[in-house]
Design goal:
single chain; Glycerol-3-phosphate (1)-acyltransferase; two-stranded antiparallel sheet; 9 helices
């Protein structure tokens, strides 16, 4: 046997491989924001089983367009949705995205992040606290604070957090930034698309406003037809103006 001078000292390979394995395992246990994946997995699983009764048995949730999600990359995907309730919208998306994995809800995604208003997530109650841990990217509204209209610049830290989510998984955002019917889209969503150029998937939700209250926590009507529909990836010219991109987004989610 010819010795090419590349042999390693006895025991060196197992030592550094063990160290690398421990390091990788530690990194995989936490998401991009340092939250423990097993805790997120358990929370999504519990929340899924608690809400499946309301969505699939007391009402009728229909999931459409799942085929458009199957070939997407594991990172750099932006789901853009209309906004009907504070919390149930995101829960429905978690349900339907988890539907890609079988058995249903047993192995949910822990690399799906949700953009939500910091003001909403700081409200009282256990659910905002749980969702804040479970993949929520909290951002400051630039046009509203409480009931007061304001004008402030986008916080660069908010942009950085969204970029972090895109680099490590999928991000769900609501360009209207409010559940008020007919609200206009906010230009910040289009500017993020121009800057980071993700794969953009339109999401259209229906029926949740009729079945649930504004928060999405209290069921007020049963036997309602609910649906979530995923469209094909949008063909976006990233060199267009942010206003033109926003128009494309709003038309795709049925809010033009």
């Amino acid at each position: 046997m010819v010795d090419h001078g590349c042999a390693e000292p006895t025991g060196a390979r197992p030592l550094y491989l063990a160290g690398a394995t421990i390091l990788c395992s530690g990194l995989m246990l936490r998401d991009a924001f340092g939250h423990l994946r097993p805790i997120r997995w358990a929370m999504i699983n519990l929340g899924g089983y608690l809400t499946v009764l309301q969505l699939r048995l007391l009402n009728r949730l229909r999931i459409e367009g799942v085929e458009h999600l199957k070939q997407l990359p594991s990172r750099g995907v932006l789901l853009v949705s209309n906004h009907l309730t504070h919390y149930m919208d995101s829960i429905v998306v978690f349900h339907s995205v988890s539907y890609l994995r079988r058995p249903y809800l047993i192995w949910p995604r822990t690399d799906l992040y949700i953009v939500a208003a910091l003001e909403t997530m700081k409200s009282r109650g256990w659910l905002p606290r749980l969702m804040a841990y479970n993949g929520t990217i909290c951002v400051k509204r630039t046009w509203k604070e409480g009931d007061r209209r304001i004008e402030r610049k986008v916080d660069p830290e908010d942009i950085r957090k969204i970029h972090t989510g895109l680099k490590s998984g999928w991000v769900l955002t609501y360009p209207q930034g409010t559940t008020t019917p007919g609200a206009p889209g906010r230009i910040g969503c289009a500017e993020i698309i121009k800057q980071f150029r993700p794969v953009v998937i339109p999401v259209r939700l229906r029926g949740l406003r009729e079945a649930f209250d504004k928060t999405g926590l209290r069921l007020r009507k049963t036997r309602t037809e609910l649906s979530v529909r995923y469209g094909r990836p949008l063909d976006i010219d990233f060199d267009q103006s942010a206003a033109a991109i926003l128009g494309t987004l709003m038309a795709a989610i049925g809010e033009a």
